[in-house]
Amino acid sequence: MSPLTSRRRGAAALAIGLALSLSACSGDQKMADSGTTSMTSSMSHSSSSAASTTSAKTMTDSMAKGAYLSLADYEKQMADRAGSTVVYFFHASWCPDCKATDAALMADGVPDGLTVVKVDYDTATDLKKKYGVTTQHTFVAVDPEGMATKKWTGSANGAAIKAMVDSA
Predict the structure, then answer these.
(1) Domain count of the chain?
(2) Model's pTM, two decimal places?
(3) CATH number of 35's domain
(4) Measured between alpha carbons, how far is 26 from 98 in angstroms, rounded to an integer?
(5) Is residue 9 part of a domain?
(6) Residue 107, in any domain of the structure
(7) Among residues 60, 127, 142, 65, which one has the least CA distance to residue 91?
(8) Could you write out the DSSP letters of every residue in 102-143?
(9) What are the 10-residue block averages of pLDDT along the chain, 168 residues in total?
(10) Measuring CA to CA, which residue among 135, 124, 34 is closest to residue 74?
(11) Is residue 5 part of a domain?
(12) Is-contact 141 165, C-beta < 8 A?
């Protein structure tokens, strides 16, 4: 085999690997329930927007403020986040969908009662193993003991993350 053919095959293999890696970064809402009990919404939905606003205000007065934290900051504030629903966001700096979700969370914030913890997909191997995370842009909702209650990919912002957590 000539050196040129070998280089072409190597380049083709690299391109295929890169394409497969980036295809895992799609924005599809693929839900992979972890098999444990799903979390449900504690907030009732009213058909009247005025009643809904009043009800939401009353509920959020007793809820923790929404937060988007790094893993290190979350570990320092765990006690302060008690009572909040915690979702780990496995983020990769090279993932376009991760970047878009990160920007949306920074710009729009996180709904009250929800804490989104940004976890570096490339370095958090222990957490990836613990929660069975195999692709970036994965979200894992955890209970107060740190056990996964739900796992999915593809949420684009805080409202979408909250909706996935609240879905049955």
Answers:
(1) 1
(2) 0.65
(3) 3.40.30.10
(4) 10
(5) no
(6) yes
(7) 127
(8) HHHHHHH---TTEEEEEEETTT-HHHHHHHT--SSSEEEEE-
(9) 50 43 41 32 32 36 77 90 91 95 94 95 96 96 93 92 87
(10) 124
(11) no
(12) yes
Contact assessment for residue 128 and residue 76, using Cβ atoms and an 8 Å cutoff: no
Helix, strand or coil for residue 90?
Answer: strand
Q: Tokens 């790094």 map to which residue?
A: 70
- Domain assignment present for residue 49? The answer is yes
Assigned token pair, 39: 């979390």
Q: Is there a contact between 35 and 158 (Cβ–Cβ < 8 Å)? A: no
Q: What pLDDT is attached to residue 122?
A: 96
Task: With H, G, I as helix, E, B as strand and everything else as coil, classify residue 73.
Answer: helix
Q: Kindly provide the residue ranges of all beta strands, DSSP E only, lying in the chain, ordered along the sequence.
A: 67-70, 85-91, 114-120, 138-142, 148-153
By residue range, what is the domain housing residue 98?
A: 27-166
The predicted pLDDT at position 63 comes to 57
Sign of CA dihedral 110, 151, 136, 74: positive
Q: Copy the structure tokens of residue 115.
A: 């804490």
- Whether residue 37 contacts residue 168, with contact meaning beta carbons closer than 8 Å, is answered with no
Residue 89, classified by CB atoms within 10 Å of its CB into exposed (0-12), middle (13-18) or buried (19+), is buried
The tokens 């990836």 sit on which residue?
A: 128
Rounded to whole angstroms, the Cα distance separating 81 from 28 reads: 29
**Residue indicated by tokens 């990769």:** 92
